[in-house]
Amino acid sequence: xxxxxxxxxxxxxxxxxxxxxxxxxxxxxxxxxxxxxxxxxxxxxxxxxxxxxxxxxxxxxxxxxxxxxxxxxxxxxxxxxxxxxxxxxxxxxxxxxxxxxxxxxxxxxxxxxxxxxxxxxxxxxxxxxxxxxxxxxxxxxxxxxxxxxxxxxxxxxxxxxxxxxxxxxxxxxxxxxxxxxxxxxxxxxxxxxxxxxxxxxxxxxxxxxxxxxxxxxxxxxxxxxxxxxxxxxxxxxxxxxxxxxxxxxxxxxxxxxxxxxxxx
Length: 264
What we know:
With about 260 residues, this protein is an alpha/beta fold. The protein folds into two domains: about 5-205, 2-enoyl-CoA Hydratase, Chain A, domain 1 (Alpha-Beta Complex), CATH 3.90.226.10; about 210-255, Lyase 2-enoyl-coa Hydratase, Chain  A, domain 2 (Orthogonal Bundle), CATH 1.10.12. It is about 45% helix and about 15% strand. The protein has ten helices and ten strands. Strands 1-2-3-5-7-10 form a six-stranded mixed β-sheet, with helices on both faces. Strands 4-6-8-9 form a four-stranded mixed β-sheet. Helix 1 (about 30-45) packs parallel to helix 2, helix 4 (about 150-155) crosses helix 5 (about 160-170) and helix 8 packs antiparallel against helix 9. It is globular.
């Protein structure tokens, strides 16, 4: 487990659980936490133990975005270049999540607002507690959406709904988010972590290389032609077909048993 109180990383049975841990601030991300967030994601990517990432928040929030209280207007602490903060922190985190070679499951236990909404929706499988909600509040403070929301939300829910979320800055309840196709599933609050862990453990026991290629392929296909996508699928299938897990999957199918994937 990480020794940093605001971000906790736990590794067990191939599941890397990363918990945003500032419940008293609704898990708002302070500037000094961003570099650690990047480094913990790099550990998940590089150490070879994780076969899935489970991202969640402590307490009653998933993440309320950037910690505005970290900048004090009385002392002139509000930065004039908010883009620099994105470049040095939030954009790096979003990029790391996009290119992780393992699936990402997000357990949204409460408010996911601002950048926190972007992080929640970066998951491959997003499961939300029924009391959770999603919010793009940037217009309320004279800013624009970030952490990839401008790219991601229209692709998830369409231009009309994404635009209304951003311009009006109103809450989208978890049930509505599921109806819109923004997230995969809504469960009762007390069933959230049990459900998310079950999904994460299933993925941790699966064909990890193929999962990573699926993540990459889905993202690439959103910006590619059919011809380009067919060529990408050929490349990825060649890689997946050379894995031990593919051999095991075929053997298990022929022998009418469950496969025992090793993630390689």
